[in-house]
Write the structure tokens for this entry.
Amino acid sequence: MHIDWAALGSVFGVSLIATIALVGLFTLGIVGLSRHEQASAQGGSAALSVTGAYACFAACAAAVAYGIYLIVA
């Protein structure tokens, strides 16, 4: 049995980077929504933060859908 350690390390690295990126995007989305809640409580408007939050969530959903596509296809 031969294990290609370089390929295994490559898969690990890409998986780690993708995980950190997705968690970061989702966190930015949550922060954007919480900023909107804070602005609403103070009587202001933070439409840009909601738009950015939804864009982050859409990017997360697109990445997950692409991953499912890669697995199924």
